[in-house]
């Protein structure tokens, strides 16, 4: 009875639907049925309407099925209720599986694989983990680079130390006149508090640095990365959240590979091991799709080939993903150490690390913009002063040609 049921399911999945038979639709939701049928059309062109071949390609981790294609297919998978409907129909000897409508034929083909949804998810992870790990590493690198640039900036340190000295001098005799550091929250006040002529404290500092021949210290603003951009990657979702997702996906693929290997015969397990060793970095050979729907015996052989390929490619995926996870773990550990140092350096020791870094980046981004404005304003002022001096010298030389050149 089980063999006959398997044959009926295969006929539903592998054979083109006879036009003379009236379709049997088991789905009550007509919109869902239409969406599944439309979604499967793209795959029908590749696999000639053979749903067995499509499911076998998924189960074997076919190279043609990339991440977007797999995610598109994933939404077409049957729900538990839909599985029950199709299974009940196919298992009934009085029913003709060839009469099933398009969505139900695909569901019947998918039911031939005990853990088909898990295979699809494993295939998605294999197709996507590399890019996900790269994105997470890039996020960690951006935040770490911003932290390192701030903590390692000698010019920023000199400007902040001068502001601290100037602030303590201005507040001499007050409770705030003996500060040990510049509070991040006070950086904005240096720009808003204005004196005679509309100049603020940052303008004053720029003037002092220029008079001392230290104007180059203000150029630290040009060496800083975009702090606003770095702040967008501070949240844990970009790094630790991605790491948790990668670990979870890796564990699922490991479990699927183990289950798939256990389902193989001893000979096929040996074949999988030999194929993995022989193929090296190159993908294992694809499972060929038959020109016509296969018999039960032929399907069993093709399914075994698909499972062998799954074991080989899933094993390779596990190895590569484990390296990616280890690399991301190292970057996050380095970022944690740098973040701790940055928080201590700028006195942002309270609250979660992400919130503290956002405070640091936000305050210093605004402060750096103000320093850049003051520096550029000073440069324009000095350039204008130099031009005026040259004009005056030229005018004097014209009025008195005998006068010595300046």
List the helices and strands and how they pair.
Elements: H1 2-14, H2 30-47, H3 51-59, H4 67-74, H5 80-91, H6 102-111, H7 116-152, H8 154-170, H9 187-192, H10 201-211, H11 220-223, H12 227-231, H13 240-263, H14 266-279, H15 296-346, H16 353-399
Helix pairs in contact: 1-6, 4-7, 5-6, 7-13, 7-15, 10-16, 13-15, 14-15, 15-16
Protein name: FH2 domain-containing protein
Biased composition (Low complexity): 282-293
InterPro entries: FH2_Formin, FH2_Formin_sf, Formin_Homology
Element-level helix/strand string: HHHHHHHHHHHHHHHH
Helix content: over 70%
Structural class: mainly alpha
Which blocks of ≥5 consecutive residues have pLDDT under 50?
1-7
C-alpha geometry: elongated
For the biggest sheet, the summary is: none
């Amino acid at each position: 009875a089980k063999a006959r049921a398997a044959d009926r399911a295969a006929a539903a999945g592998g054979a083109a639907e006879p036009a003379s038979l009236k379709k049997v639709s088991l789905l009550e939701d007509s919109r869902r049925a239409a969406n599944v049928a439309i979604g499967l059309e793209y795959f029908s062109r590749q696999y000639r309407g053979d749903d067995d071949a499509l499911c076998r390609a998924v189960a074997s981790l076919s190279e043609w099925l990339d991440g977007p294609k797999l995610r598109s297919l994933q939404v077409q998978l049957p729900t538990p209720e839909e599985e029950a409907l199709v299974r009940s129909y196919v298992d009934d000897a009085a029913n003709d599986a060839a009469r099933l409508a398009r969505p139900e034929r695909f569901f019947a083909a998918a039911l031939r694989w005990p853990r088909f949804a898990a295979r699809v998810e494993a295939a998605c992870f294999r197709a996507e983990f590399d890019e996900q790990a790269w994105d997470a590493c890039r996020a960690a690198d951006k935040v770490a680079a911003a932290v390192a640039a701030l903590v390692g900036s000698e010019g920023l340190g000199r400007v902040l130390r001068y502001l601290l000295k100037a602030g303590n001098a201005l507040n001499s005799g007050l409770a705030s006149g003996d500060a040990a550091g510049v509070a991040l929250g006070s950086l904005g006040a240096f720009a808003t508090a204005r004196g005679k002529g509309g100049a603020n404290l940052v303008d004053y500092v720029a003037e002092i640095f220029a008079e001392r021949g230290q104007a180059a210290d203000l150029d630290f603003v040009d060496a800083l990365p975009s702090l606003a951009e770095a702040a967008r990657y501070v949240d844990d979702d970009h790094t630790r959240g991605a790491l948790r997702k990668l670990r979870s996906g890796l564990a699922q693929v490991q479990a699927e590979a183990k289950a798939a290997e256990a389902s193989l015969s001893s000979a096929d397990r040996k074949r999988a091991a030999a194929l993995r060793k022989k193929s090296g970095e190159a993908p294992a050979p694809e499972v060929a799709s038959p020109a016509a729907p296969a018999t039960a015996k032929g399907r069993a052989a093709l399914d075994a080939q698909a499972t062998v390929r799954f074991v080989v490619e899933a094993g390779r995926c596990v190895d590569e993903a484990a390296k990616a996870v280890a690399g991301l773990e190292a970057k996050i550990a380095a970022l944690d150490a740098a973040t701790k140092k940055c928080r201590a350096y700028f006195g942002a020791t309270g609250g979660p690390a992400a919130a503290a870094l956002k405070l640091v980046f936000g305050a210093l981004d605004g402060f750096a913009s103000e320093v850049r404005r003051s520096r550029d304003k000073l440069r324009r002022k000095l350039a204008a002063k130099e031009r005026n001096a040259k004009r005056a010298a030229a005018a004097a030389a014209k009025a008195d040609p005998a006068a010595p050149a300046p």
